[in-house]
């Protein structure tokens, strides 16, 4: 679903990008001005943001417990020196600048703009003050709620074919100062939960330097291809803009990192991935496969933490930070941060590409095979890592270690 009418400014940009290449690829190449804008603006902003973050102590210190983190594990940080945060602002600032310029702020685009703004404000405050987990969940629910109560309703969903599952059993609509709002049940409730799941599963990928940036870059490029194929101008424009910004950020965040995305980036990548994928008319099975690795890793970690720590409620479960994520397990198998980045990003790109390229009946096989492949991969890596830890503890030399 293309959600807005392009402005004359966007039309001129796409005309500038028209390379007059008579091939099947010209529709992709026409977007190079947006890619270049994101690349250059982000590259210029990052040194400035890094200096500001360093000056005011908005940094990540390795192997140091963060305040307001009762269950924090200092060993979960995989960087070696104090590194400035707030790098994600170099991605979100270009988005916030160009949404009102490229697309008019209407009932479709304004909720997305406001939700991003809420996440930016909340996550920057989190980077500065290390907000408690319940406060983080609060501004995430507010951002997801803005989308759920907007006219962007999840009234139906398609998994494999063009047959739709109706999710609008009950619908409600109203106006606030002549601005339309609506809510369908259970569709928008599912949408709210889906956005929260995507925000946090992608956010949890950010434990290893450069990993969340490279992973997000791969997924946004796939969404760009998906947006072009479904004629979704909004999704294709924003995804290629973000891809350009992420390449610049990855240059600085690649291990050893000079700057990190911080909450100001990690909280927003998952939100934008979930919203843009759905707006590009992707079948729900495709969207699930794009985010298969972080979602399955998140579920694995949640189950492991629940069994291990036995938290009393979901808020206590959210406070737990340990070294049970996939990137921590790969580190235990003696992979370097760079190798972890390449392994997880390549695997996600493989599964995501398979999802986009599959059509018709093949999508049944793609979803089942893709999800099964990710589950086997996550379980196998965790099994190998835990066996290696067990061997270390039971080695003859361990009895003499102090």
Sheet of most strands: 2 strands, antiparallel
Number of helices: 16
Oligomer: single chain
Coarse structural class: mainly alpha
The rough form would be described as globular
Beta content comes to: 5-15%
Strand neighbour order, sheet with most strands: 1-2
Secondary structure: helix percent: 55-70%
Distance between the termini: 62 Å
In words, what does this structure look like?
The chain contains 16 helices and 6 strands. The chain has 402 residues and is mainly alpha-helical. The protein has a domain at 8-286.
Keywords:
402 residues; mainly alpha; two-stranded antiparallel ribbon; 16 helices; 6 strands; globular; disordered C terminus
List the topology elements.
Elements: H1 8-17, H2 26-29, H3 32-55, E1 59-60, E2 83-84, H4 89-102, H5 109-129, H6 133-148, E3 156-157, E4 165-166, E5 168-176, E6 179-186, H7 187-203, H8 211-229, H9 233-253, H10 263-279, H11 284-290, H12 292-309, H13 314-319, H14 326-332, H15 337-357, H16 362-393
Antiparallel strand pairs: 1-2, 3-4, 5-6
Helix pairs in contact: 3-4, 3-9, 4-5, 4-9, 5-6, 5-10, 6-7, 7-10, 7-12, 8-9, 8-10, 8-15, 11-15, 11-16, 12-16, 14-16
């Amino acid at each position: 679903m293309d959600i807005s009418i392009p402005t004359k400014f966007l039309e001129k940009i796409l005309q500038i990008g028209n390379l007059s290449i008579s091939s099947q690829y010209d529709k992709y190449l026409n977007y190079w001005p947006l890619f270049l804008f994101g690349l250059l603006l982000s590259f210029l902003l990052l040194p400035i943001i890094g200096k500001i973050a360093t000056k005011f102590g908005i940094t990540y210190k390795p192997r140091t417990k963060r305040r307001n983190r009762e269950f924090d594990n200092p060993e979960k940080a995989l960087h070696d020196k104090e590194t400035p945060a707030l790098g994600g602002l170099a991605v979100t600032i270009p988005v916030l600048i160009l949404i009102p310029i490229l697309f008019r702020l209407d009932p479709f685009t304004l909720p997305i703009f406001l939700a991003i703004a809420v996440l930016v404000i909340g996550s920057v405050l989190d980077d500065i003050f290390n907000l408690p987990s319940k406060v983080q969940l609060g501004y995430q629910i507010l951002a997801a709620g803005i989308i759920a109560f907007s006219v962007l309703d999840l009234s139906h969903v398609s998994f494999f074919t063009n047959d739709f599952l109706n999710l609008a059993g009950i619908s409600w609509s109203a106006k606030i100062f002549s601005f339309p709002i609506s809510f369908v049940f259970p569709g928008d409730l599912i949408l709210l939960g889906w956005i929260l799941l995507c925000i946090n599963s992608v956010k949890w990928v950010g434990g290893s330097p450069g990993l969340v940036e490279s992973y997000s870059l791969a997924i946004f490029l796939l969404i760009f291809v998906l947006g072009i194929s479904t004629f979704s101008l909004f999704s294709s424009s924003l995804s290629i803009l973000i891809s350009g910004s992420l390449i610049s950020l990855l240059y600085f965040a690649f291990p050893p990192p000079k700057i990190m995305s911080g909450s100001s980036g990690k909280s927003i990548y998952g939100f934008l991935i979930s919203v843009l994928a759905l707006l590009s008319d992707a079948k729900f099975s495709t969207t699930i496969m794009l985010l298969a690795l972080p979602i399955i890793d998140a579920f694995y970690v949640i189950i492991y933490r629940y069994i291990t720590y036995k938290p009393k409620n979901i808020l206590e479960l959210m406070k737990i930070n340990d070294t049970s994520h996939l990137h921590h397990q790969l580190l235990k198998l003696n992979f370097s941060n760079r190798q972890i980045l390449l392994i997880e990003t390549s695997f996600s790109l493989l599964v995501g590409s398979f999802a986009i390229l599959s059509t018709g009946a093949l999508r049944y096989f793609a979803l089942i095979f893709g999800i099964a492949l990710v589950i086997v991969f996550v379980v196998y890596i965790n099994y190998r890592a835990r066996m290696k830890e067990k061997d270390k503890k039971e080695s003859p030399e361990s009895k003499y270690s102090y």
